What we know:
CATH architecture: Up-down Bundle
Oligomer: single chain
Shape: globular
Order of helices and strands: HHHHHHH
InterPro entries: PhoU-like_sf (IPR038078), Put_Phosphate_transp_reg (IPR018445), UPF0111_domain (IPR052912)
Distance between the termini: 24 Å
Radius of gyration: 19 Å
Helix content: over 70%
CATH topology: Methane Monooxygenase Hydroxylase, Chain G, domain 1
Pfam family, one: PhoU_div
Protein name: Phosphate transport regulator
Family: Belongs to the UPF0111 family.
Organism: Polynucleobacter asymbioticus (strain DSM 18221 / CIP 109841 / QLW-P1DMWA-1)
Number of domains: 1
Strand content: under 5%
Amino acid sequence: MFFSKLMPHDGNFFVLFNEHAGHIVAASESFLKFVEHYNDEVLRAKYTQEVDKAEHACDDVVKEVHRRLHKTFITPIDRDQIFSLINTMDDVADLLQNGTEAMHLYDVKQMTAEMIQMAELCNQCCISMKNAVATLKDISDPEVAKAALKTCDEIDHLESNADRLLSTAITRLFREDIEVRELIKCQRIYELLEEVTDKCEDVANLVEGIVLENS
């Protein structure tokens, strides 16, 4: 007992979670603007850089979390939960960056209405994810824990909307007279955007597990 009291405690992981989530929201907002202004090459380049900057900032936070995990003896929640949560959150940032890269790589000519709608859902999911993560430091409070679970349910609902939109978008692709290469490009972009919402739901599931185990 005396020995454990001498060991480093906490590590401010909740602060780092919130910082990372803030960068994700910045990336998702820039990604949405990237999609909305896709036909403007100058703005497209500007928002691509903003997404890249936010993703790099996320990487820095992940490295710091890993560093503190190695130096902290007693953590506020289970070490595996910390590791899984920050890495899954980082997957969201990576997917947003992959979205801008894929559109450049595939030379997508223009955004469809469904792409814009999916980008909006991605942004909403990221905002809700940030709100869910922000509750973790106070989940010992029953009301905060209840709010956290409600936010996780909201993310699940948004992800379900993205699933339905993906089905609608792909159905329309195959029903319209569209060149095969463009069809393949669009399908891949739709699937990639839906992956963002899937990964946000994965984060929500981790948050829900943490809340249920620690509240």
